[in-house]
Amino acid sequence: MPKKFAVNSKAAAGRERKAAQDAEKKAKQQAALEQKEEERWSQGAKKAGKKESEAEKRAELEALKEQEEKELSKMKRAPAAKQTRLEEDLGKHVGEAVPVFSADNLDDALEALEIVDDKATRPGGSGAPDRHVERRLKAAYAAYEERELPLLKQENPGLRLSQLKQLLWKQWQKSPENPLNQASLAYNATRDQEAALLQTRRDEIEARLKE
Fold it and tell me: Domain Coiled-coil: where (predicted)?
């Protein structure tokens, strides 16, 4: 009959503690390994996401570049625009001498502008002859008197007001500001008559102001 040995309680307790410590150590090591693995996977996912984002940006840039190239290609294939009337007129007059006008005062400058403003010198334009001169005679003389009478007083301090007005009236008769001295038409004049008078006036101004 085999001999029974007594169990050493201290040794058993020591073995249990060691086993528990080993198990705890292994658990910590396993947790550390799992943590590292998670970090590695996380970094890999970030890198993959970054690469995917960069690829998307490159694709967008390529799409924009292709769109721009298509637009440029359409522009190159577009037919040339027709010449405007102004361009045609300019082309007809290439090489022609350009007249030069000289204006010494405001009235001359305004008349020079009428020459170069084609719309103003057309029948019915702003520079067309007046068909109702009498309508603006009074206003024109009032403006002339308001400006010129003080100057006459300074030049002729010994004259009375009535004498100054007589002198002013004589000047007014010859003044280019007097509507009666300006080109005018009968109210029932035809367009051809108006055009002829305009051309005559234009020729007179050009002859007077051309250098």
Answer: 101-182
Distance CA 121, CA 129 (A): 9
Q: Give 8-33 pLDDT, tens digit per residue.
A: 677 777 788 888 888 898 899 998 88
Name the pTM for this structure.
0.31
| pLDDT score for 120 | 47
State the Rg of the chain over Cα.
52
Relative orientation angle of helices 106-116 and 191-209, to the nearest 10 degrees: 130
Q: Which two tokens stand for residue 196?
A: 């002829």
Rounded to 10 deg, the angle between the 137-155 and 161-174 helix axes is 120
**Amino acid, single-letter form, for residue 23:** A
Integer angstrom CA distances of residue 8 from 3, 4, 11, 65, 141? 16, 13, 5, 85, 144
Q: Where are the domains of the chain?
A: 13-74, 100-209
* H or E stretch covering 58: helix 9-77
